[in-house]
Amino acid sequence: MAPAAAASAPAGPASGRTRLGGMMSGEPLIRARGLGLQYGSKRVLDGLDFEIPAGRVVGLLGHNGAGKTSLMRALVGLTGHEGELSVLGLSPQRQRTALLQSLCYIPDVAILPRWARASELITLMAGLHPNFSAERARQLLKRTSVGLNDKVKTLSRGMVVQLHLALVAAIDARLMVLDEPTLGLDVLSRKAFYEMLIDEWCDGERSVLISTHQVEEVESLLSDVLMLSEGRLVLNIPLAEVDERFVALSHDPAAADAVAAAHPILRYRQQGQSAALFDGAPPPEVQALGQRMRPSLVDLFVALTRAPELNPTIPR
Ligand SMILES: Nc1ncnc2c1ncn2[C@@H]1O[C@H](COP(=O)(O)OP(=O)(O)OP(=O)(O)O)[C@@H](O)[C@H]1O
Fold first, then answer.
1. Distance of CA 55 to CAs 65, 67, 174, 178, Å?
2. Strand pairing partners for 31?
3. Same-domain status, 158 and 205
4. How far apart are the first and last CA of the chain?
5. How confident is the model over 163-221, as pLDDT tens digits?
6. Predicted local distance difference test score (pLDDT) of residue 88
7. 16: CA distance to ligand 1 center in Å?
8. In this structure, are 190 and 271 located in the same domain?
9. Most CB contacts within 10 A, which of 87, 121, 171, 275?
């Protein structure tokens, strides 16, 4: 595959920059070059190059074991890495304490101390985090069905997640890293979670990196997608550019051989029709055999993360 497009705009001229904490304005919030990670003899992340600028909602997608959690752990300094990694202008490993002032990381949103009341958690957070606003947390809690006096052990899983997000979103940070935040939630709770995240935390300057398996559901929320397969980045693209790069064609079954000869990265069925997905435009005579459609993120995911032996047309 062609080198992945950076999910970022280039940084502005150095002369126009001002310093914000550990970084210059206009610099990406995350910058990785040749990022790798190995556990024993197992290579888990391999040569990742990407940037996440300010104001983005980035989906981190990949099959089970693709390396999503490992990447997030490296980003927040919980594990070592090879290559260059800068998060908010800091080295996650060497400057973790400073980094955590401006970064929220939630490995599992549904875990809070069962004995605590919501009001006690707010008091606790106010004591722990210098950028936490108790007033903001109380405001955010009003969006949920959780009362200030409710104890965590009396809440449903969906309510715990809402409470956790209210607490975290009350931190004035620049980057939020969420590892499968809606795991185990029903569709209404997932919707409520993402609505609160987008409405209450994303302000055009902050960025969020979310890993999830619910690819269809997050497609409309994301500005960019990073896709991992077996520790490698197989896609790094703003959603707005998917249409320019990938071409999906629905076609008559009679055209199947001619379409297949143009090496689609995926052949599938869409609304009862045969369809093919191409990385780059197929020749005009092939395009004329079908109708162009918008490729979905799910189709891209299937095409780019299937085991190579099942998908020999994908260049590795
Ligand atoms: N501490 C560890 N020691 C050894 N191997 C590990 C460790 N943590 C993760 N791995 C391996 O690294 C690979 C990537 O795991 P990781 O948890 O990052 O994947 P993931 O994409 O988050 O998966 P999932 O979607 O299932 O949560 C897997 O093969 C896993 O077995």
1. 28, 24, 9, 16
2. 51, 86
3. yes
4. 6
5. 998 999 999 999 999 999 888 888 988 888 899 899 988 999 999 999 999 998 899 99
6. 95
7. 41
8. no
9. 87
Q: What CA–CA distance (Å, rounded) separates 207 from 28?
A: 10
Test site for ligand 1: of 44, 45, 68, 305, most ligand atoms within 8 A of the Cβ:
44
Residue identifier of the C-alpha nearest atom 24 of ligand 1? 64
Domain that holds residue 255: 242-310
154 shares its domain with 295: no
Higher pLDDT, 25 or 292: 292
**Co-location of 139 and 197 in the same domain:** yes
> What's the total number of domains in the chain?
2
**Atom 25 in ligand 1: which residue has the minimum CA distance?**
64
Q: Maximum distance among all alpha carbons in the chain?
A: 68
Give me ligand 1 centre to Cα 84, in Å: 21
| Whole-structure pTM value | 0.87
Q: Could you report the per-residue pLDDT of 84-96, keeping only the tens digit for each?
A: 999 999 999 999 9
ipTM of the complex: 0.97
Judge whether 131 and 102 are in contact, CB under 8 Å: yes
CB burial of residue 287 (10 Å; 0-12, 13-18, 19+)? middle
